[in-house]
Amino acid sequence: MNDVAATLARDCEVAMQAYLAGSGEAALRRAYLAGREALANGMGVLDILAAHQAPIIRELHSQVREQDSERAIEQAFHCLAESLSPFEMVFRGVQEANARLKQSLSSLRSVEEQLRRQNDELLAAHRAVEKERGRYQALYDFAPDGYLVTGLEGAILEANTAAAAILQTPKELLPGQSLSEFVVKADRAEFRERLRKLHIGSIEKMEDWQICIRPREGPPIPAALTVVAERSVPAVASLRWLIRDVTERKRLEKERDRWMFGRAKAHAARRFEILAEASSLLVGSPDVEANLISVARLAAPFFAGWCFISLVEPDGSLRQLEVAHANASAADLANNLRRHCLFGGPADRDRGALLAYPQLTEPLTDEWYDLAADGPQHSALLHELRGNSALVLPMRIHKRLVGVLTLISVVGARRPYRPAARALGEDLARRCALALENARLYREVVAERDKAEQASRAKDQFVAILSHELRNPLTPIVGWTRTLKCRTQISQDPVLAEGVKAIEKNALTLRRLIDDCLDLARISEGKIQTERKAVDLNQIVMTSAEAVRQMAAERELSLQVEVTAEPVPVLGDATRLEQVIMNLLINAVKYTKGGGSISIRTVWMGEETEVEITDTGIGIDPAYLEQIFEPFRQRTSSWLRSQSGLGLGLAIARRILEMHEGRIWAESAGLGRGSTFRVRLPLAAVEDQASAAGTVEQPPAAPGDSIRILLIEDLDDILFLMKTELEKMGHTVVTATDGHRGLEAARAHHPDLIISDIRMPVVDGYQLIRTIRDMPDLNTTPAIALTGFGAKKDIERALAAGFNGCLSKPAEPEEVAALLKQLIERRRAVHAGTQPG
Q1: 10 Å Cβ neighbour count for 791?
Q2: pLDDT at position 541
Q3: Which of 36, 183, 375, 410 is most buried (CB neighbours < 10 A)?
């Protein structure tokens, strides 16, 4: 036995003795500690058990001899059990630990097997990843788009083959270069700014960034960039770029744009054609409703469906004008719809809102059909349209509704009411509204024109009657003053002579005013006619000057006339041109104080001729040089206020000259400094100059022989005056006071010439001359109409009725004598079988 066992045996024996002696726990603890120490020193469990049993056996042998053996054995085994119980617990723990260890070992083997399998799988996956990585690298290198990896500051770290091709730089030379170096200068500032935002993280991604790249060689190319910031591992943060050459895309876009532009241009051209054709239809005839029907039939096919046009009636209700359709098979439905009126039902708030402005409704609902219909039957018909969408276009003028244009597309139509089509429809509605407004205005203008024509006719009648009524009393006044002033009793009495002179002067003024009013009215209405023929303007100037010379002499004015040596041929009406010159000369006399001077001269001005009339009169304020040619502007300045009158003479003169393609204007340095009036007229053509040179007005000659004259006049004053003047010329005069008596006198006396008033009771002058022309023995007798109506139409009517000449009251004796001579010579020539030369 070794030392450990011996020591254990002694300690166990001592502990056993102490336990048996009654030490209890202390003895058991000593035995346990001894066993533990032995166990620590490498002693086995069985050896420890044997060491504990040895003293027990010896103690049992001694106790058997001395005491009761049963009790001793019980205590000894109790001591042994108690001393070995800790070791039993440890042993059980070891067993349990061994069991758990075995179980753990089994688990470890299972995990090892699983790890081995996973390792095999990882190796296979690694091989696949390596294979895929190689494949990806191939795709990366040979991808059609350029891929780049750069630092956050834009330095290139990695590039594929396509990127190198786009930048036209070898791939191995790209790392280290800045991507901004390949951006054109125009885009470089923007590129650096966006690169800065990517760097600081204010943006993380940009797609389809349009920019222009300049390769190392060759021209710039358009490119689209997509860039993403990679920041998952801060140490390797980078920017990943996709660079795509969009040259072909740009080309395709341009081609597409050109195609779209061509298509849009074609659509625009078609829309323009529609509008142009619609505009042409709207003005095609005065019947605006027929024009609107044509427009509706034009619009229906273009807008792929139906076109409704409703008009607003005077009472505010709507009337269906037309229902046009694109499908010929829908004629029956269209006819049924025409019996109703779209939006023609009772007015309410919803319908008013619908017609307030253009509205597109899509799709069409039952509520819309009910709102648009004028009743259930109409609504059912509208459902048969199979409408898809409706464009309601109110036709308004100055916010006033005049009608409604409604376009309805059928199911299957492909978005017929795009913005361009809507704009076209609105334009079409505006043009229809304008056509309706123009038609309304035209009707109003026609109504006003009719009223104006009626008023003009009434005015003409009034002016004609007034002229007649004024000329009749003027005729004896002018005639008797002319007769009386030649009487010795009058001429020798200064008071009577001056009185007769004043009467004659004012009577002539009154006659001129009447003539001016008539002339202005005729010119304004285009009723005055000019007989254009070649005349010598010098002759007109000299005749006019001679006519006013006596008037100028009476006011102690000098009148100088200067005309060109050669005739001045102009194409015009000699009577009207003489009226212009006479008016200007009379004005010069009226507005020039005694002792002054007046000059008139003709001047050649290239292809024109000028008549210049200058006076030393009161002058004209320059501010009124143009206003004096306006009618009824007599009071615009002191020049016009200085004499009585209506201010018509210059207005008539200007309009007569405009009818001759000429012009007139005034010049003056100011009030008190005289004035000059200039008249310009175009010269006559060469072929007309010969006739103008040979045209010389001859003064009328008195008839050489006495003739029998039948004078018919219902006013005694005029009858007596004219009888006196005709007898003074040496003629025999038979009188009658009305047409009936005139016919009796004609049958009884067979006169050589008849002078008859037109407006007479019982039988007027027209009926008189027609009756005389039906008498075989009097039908060739010359006849002169005497009328207070001085219009050209009155003269033409008298000549058409059968008169050979016409004189306006009051007629000058010289004018009467000249016409008498002309008619008598013509009659003698007819009787002699020859025509006068």
Answers
A1: 19
A2: 92
A3: 183
